Every structure is written in C-alpha cells, then in structure tokens.
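Troubleshooting: if your tokenizer reports a length mismatch, compare your output against this known-good record of 325 residues.
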Amino acid sequence: MSDSGVPVVSVVMPAYNGERHIRESIESILHQTFQDWELIVVNDGSTDGTVAAVAEYHDPRLRYTARPNGGFTAAMNSAFKLVRGRYVAYQAQDDVSVPTRLEQSVAFLETHPEYELVHSAAIFIDVNGQEFSRWGGTGRQLSRPEAFYRLYLEGPAIATPTTLMRTRHLGSGSFWGDPALRVCSDFEHWLEVAHDFLIHEIPEPLAKMRRGAGHEYLSAQIEVVHRELATILRRVYVRYRTDALPVTRRHFRIAMSNLRLQESEYHFRRHAHGRALGSFVLAAAESRNPQVWRTAAYALLPRRVIDTLAPVARRLWKSRATRAD
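Known-good structure output:
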C-alpha cells in the first residue's frame, strides 16, 4: 500500500456460489509480484460455502461486502462503488491470474499515459485446471478506429479477466454497466472505452480463464449471452450512428450477421439443426456478409474445392472488407 493508504490497483471480484475455485483465484492475487493493490470481493447472494472460503483470508487488503443476488453486472456496480485505486482490474471467482499480471499491466499504463486500457492473451483451462486452448495474443497494435470496429463487428475480443484500466473515465459515479445486462455488460463497457480511448494488447497470456460446465457466467448461460450481445449491438449503433467515429447501418448489419453465425454454430454443435438453420438464414438476411458464405462452404463443400475458391473469394471481397459504408 502506498504512503497515502490508497492502493494503486483495485481488483474487483464478484462472487456467486464460487466455493470450489475462489480460494485459488484469491491466492493468485495474493501472490502477485506487484503488491500495491486491494481486492474487493462482492458476494452476490451465494448459497454455498463462498462466504466461509473468503473468511479464511485475513490480509487487510482484502475487502468483503455482500448483496442480494442480482447478477454479474449488479455485483460489478457494487464493487466499482468501493474502488479506490487509480487502476482497476477484474478477477473472476474461478480464474487465475499469472504472478506478473498486475506488474506488467501497471508498467505499461504508467509509461503510456495515452492509453486507457491494457489487456492480454489468455489461457483457457477446464474445471480441473488443465489447459485446452488460448485466446488472443497477436500483439498487433491497432488504431482507435481499428480496435473499435474490430470489437463491434467481430464480437467480444477482449479477455475481461486480463484487463487493467484507468478509473478516470468512469466519472464520479464509478458505474460499470446496465444491471439489465446480467452477463455481458463487459462487452458494452469495452466498446465504450475502445470508441473513445486507445487500448493495448500484451501478447503474453496473463490469466487462465476457466471454462466448462462449472463456469457460472458464460458457459452455462450462452443463450442469454447471445440475446444480450444483440441488445448491445443495437444500443451502440443508436448511440454512435451520428458520431465522428460512427456505427453505420452497414456496420450494424454485419455485426448482427456475425452474431447470428455464432448462434448457428452453437446450435449445430448441440445438434439442434432446426435452430441452427434458422440462425444461419437470419445471418444471411442481415447483410452481404462474406463470413456467412465461408461458413456454408466449409460445411458443404469438399476441402479441395474450398482451397481452390478461397483465394478468388478473398480478392473479390477485399475492397468491401476494408470499409463498411
């Protein structure tokens, strides 16, 4: 803790029935190489042993509060009202931060005052802690328009458990998001940040994100995720359609088409072929989106035909892909 008694970093952790993994998550913050932090745990109406698990830790930097169950966003709003640091990080109850996460992220923002948010690649782990995939890590620096449009058109591309952001853009209300969005308020928040500020990706994975049947907020609520993403895309379109960095009707239709493709793929994996076809038709109807036909091609055509046609298709769509007007 700094001499002023105010931490440099506030780490927020909403918790709901997280008894199985929350100790590992808390300990990953306790073992950070950067130690000037506070950890704010918000118990969102847990009914298991979450409270007892958190009570095992007596570090004075750990702050605990409880609220009735209201979902991820309501818990985040409660946490943000308690934030004191000039930077804020998110820590999921079942994720693990690598020891240098805060050190690397703080160092970047301290030396790059023009940036508002830093995030990184991430490692996906299963409920037993075994790695099975990775997310991100290109290390390519994007301009503000590039980063915003990529996020809007392609969907969530920021691993929230890797983020560190300045608190200055939050204003005096320290408001995170709309409580009506129980799951995906982080996507809307990152879109607002990317629209107005520079963001940076560290290519090295700085967090391990747990996915599987036990992951409360995404894996178990994927259909809620799809509905909320659609709501966010519409709201952001209305918010910025006349802005200097606008979201045009064309942007909106491509973004919705890509979302419908994600829904179609989800239903197909679950063998709900009727719903998969319905989402695919909606994706095709939304816009002249090359990704729709790419998905259909991979599903229906032999690989050798795809390999022959792909270069031609890329040339045909190149001029359209560089700008959505």
